[in-house]
Amino acid sequence: MSHLTDINSAYQKLNVRANTLYEFVILYHNYIYAHHTYENEHFNMMEIHTLTYIDDCPGITATELSKLWHKSKSAISQVIKRLVDSGYVEKRFKENNEKSVCLYVTDKGQRLSSVHKAYDVADITQTTSYLIEQCGQADVDAFYRIIDKYNELLKSDLES
Fold it and tell me: Which stretches make up the HTH marR-type domain (predicted)?
């Protein structure tokens, strides 16, 4: 019985911080997949960041995007289909290779990507300023160092 009591006690102590992390992950996930309006168009962050990444890396493939975003090719294909159907992205076959499809933004997609980049600059600047005001620069820097290490840990777990 004492072993079970020890486990429950340790769990209660550790779970307080773990729940804070879980809440952050859930809230951020919901934020990423909520629709935001850019140029009177509604996109979630996954879609708009995919568009911007294609703008920054013309000729990228769905396979490369799926690895970058740690998403299945099927999930990325759905995002790409929406961007293509909306006229923001076009598919082109690689020269001399009709199996490999490369992605490029259209003029319309380039304009939306630029609008999104301006939005992100303002939003990230505002968020960072708020965090520095509330916590200090050193804490914000530590937060990002910890997130980098946490990402490394999660990636290594996914690979094993």
Answer: 1-152
**Residue 21 lies inside a defined structural domain of this protein:** no
Residue 13 placed within a domain: no
* 87 assigned to some structural domain: yes
Distances (CA, A) of 157 to 82, 108, 146, 150: 31, 39, 16, 11
- At 19-77, the pLDDT tens digits run 999 999 999 989 988 888 887 888 999 999 999 999 999 999 999 999 999 899 999 99
Q: Which CATH number characterizes residue 68's domain?
A: 1.10.10.10
How far is it, in rounded angstroms, from Cα 30 to Cα 23?
A: 11
Tally of domains within the chain: 1
- d(C-alpha 57, C-alpha 103), whole Å: 9
Tell me phi and psi for residue 72, to 5 degrees: -70, 155
The residue segments making up the domain with residue 86 are 34-159
